[in-house]
Amino acid sequence: MDASSHAVFVNGELLKLHICQRVRTVVQVMQNEGGTVLGQSTDNQQLTVKGATSVPVTHFMEVIGVADGPQSILAEICTDFGSNFDAASFNGLCKLANGEFKNFYL
Amino acid sequence: MEKLPTEGGIATILANPNPDSGSDLPEIVLQVVDLRPIGNSSTRYTFMASDGKMKVKAMLPTHFASEINSGNLQNLGLIRVLDYTLNSIPNQTEKALIVTKCEVVASSFDSEIKSEVKKETEMENEAIKAKKEEAAPSIVLKPKQEPIVKSAMQIVKEERGNAAPAARLSMTRRVHPLVSLNPYQGNWTIKVRVTNKGNLRTYRNVKGEGHVFNVELTDEDGTQIQATMFNEAAKKFYPKFELGKVYYISKGSLRIANKQFKTVQNDYEMTLNENAIVEEAEGEVFIPETKYNFVKIDQLGSYVNSRELIDVIGIVQNVSSTLSIRRKSDNETIPKRDITIADDSNKTVVVSLWNDLATNIGQELLDIVDTSPVVAIKSLKVGEFQGVSLSTVSKSVVQINPDLPEAHKLRTWYDSEGKGASMASIGSDMASPNTKNGSRSMYSDRVFLSHITSDPSLGHDKPEFFSINAYISLIKGDQNMWYRACKTCNKKVSEASESGYWCEACGKSDDQCSLRYIMVLKVSDPTGEAWLSVFNEQAEKIIGCSADELERIKNEEGDDQYQMKLKEAMWVPHLFRVSVTQNEYMGEKRQRITVRSQALVDPTTESKYLLEEIAKLSV
Description:
- Chain A: It is found in: Nucleus.
- The complex is a heterodimer.
- By secondary structure, chain A is an alpha/beta fold.
- Chain A has a single domain (3-98), classed as CATH 2.40.50.140.
- Chain A has helices spanning 12-15, 87-98; strands at 8-9, 22-33, 36-41, 46-50, 60-69, 72-82.
- A 5-stranded mixed β-barrel of chain A has the order 2-3-4-6-5.
- In chain A, β1 (8-9), α1 and β2 form a beta-alpha-beta unit.
- The radius of gyration of chain A is 13 Å and the shape is globular.
- Chain B contains 15 helices and 29 strands.
- Mean pLDDT of chain B is 82; it is low at 164-171 and 431-439.
């Protein structure tokens, strides 16, 4: 697995472009069972987070880990972002970080 | 002694580049042709050494210079070469003859001596004849002619002779486009039309009295530049430059344009002094292409009250009838017509057409308004009537349905979406910059600190308003942070003789007063920093307590606690609505930035704003 130290900002759509790479994203927790979290990405896609710490449902959670599938992340670090989070702004950020300005985010 | 150059002298030299100084040299007399000093030196001379047939570039020894300076040896004179070295010039086939010792044979001659051509031709003919007569191909000895190696310079010089370089400008004139001018290349000539002529103004400064005047110049490509002349040059060129005429100009100097006084789109401005050359171009008629630099209607906010004239293009939605406005200054009535235009920033703006533009173009537009024509206007003044208003000036140019790519783009946009869209006037966004609704106005006229601090002329006659997002970087604890205020009217009170405070405005005294903040604090943003004046209402929100409370902390809890309170306010980002004015302080013009309203940065709204701005960057 390619575990370079920098994690790319991704949303649901962009995750599949970085399989086997270190990524970071924020999902809203939908379901929480036994170390696996089902989350909704900021562009309304379903993502699976394996090895996640327990974060209450409806809270936003940041995940930094390695993408192991087009809709799955193997978590290394999870952070509870609480309920006050602007998904739209984060989504905009992901697009910039992968689009024409991606050099600014390297 | 023969007073002629030695035949084959050059050949001899070429064959023997480095003779031993002691050995006897064959007699070599050469003619000194094209004698001239090297650069500004009076001791080093260069010339072409000629033997009548061949020439070689040569240099005279420095100690011989006195012979030239005294006139003993002149151009076309003869010298006998006593000692020399023939050097190879790197990268060139020709050689240089360095004469180390010589003597004058003849001081000058009437002309360059060339050996008889007749003799050569005769010899050639003989050789050919001999060739013909001999049946068998015997070796014909043709006189070996040394190839004459001439450098390009030699050829040019020979062709031109000693003609002086073309003195008249018109002979060597090569016109440069205005856009190619820069301060580092001074050798240019431009061909321009005077599209605006200012008045000859007199000013007074430390050095005394001076005169200045500007002209706006436009060349064939439509590029414009402002040229300024001072004092003698102003007086000299003021009568020379006439509006609308075309001139050839050279020997002006260029420098970066002063933003304060810029009226045309050019990074540089030109200054003409008395040495500048201005020649009227006879019979030249070119009409410079109108070059536009369009500003979208939703961007007009930052140009309000600026000196810079802007260009717009839009679809005409409405044309008013002609109004007669009476000018206050001389009671003259001028016609005016207002047209409303819209563009693809989905905003509308009103443009006031004055004088001829109102009567002529205005009427034309009224006639065709139903076809929603595209109109492009150059050189408009941006005012703040009803938020944002555009006004024509004497040099404004209006084009209806111009053949420009922007016009076609607008046409397509309007036909597809613009027609049906409901668009707001840009003015309504600007009309009330001081609404209590802080968040809305914090996003209009958003600028960086450098936009304010880099332009000292902002707010010189009317205050200008902006929003900024900046961090508080310094609150000086040792400034006068507050003043004693009347509890009723908030005006400053003075201490009366008996314990009490006298309020001039209310006409009464009170033994109690309140403290109100009046302070300056330093803010920083990614482009720079600035000092802002802050009054009570906003300062309370920034510091987090009233001035009375802060004084109590300072006196009762000690200076450390007081400083801590100030420190806690630092490095917090705020959105400020500020007014910028220019005032004079001790004879110097100073920029004063005052906070009118304040709000903490809301990350969500700010992020949305930033994403929008970034999206605009890539379009």
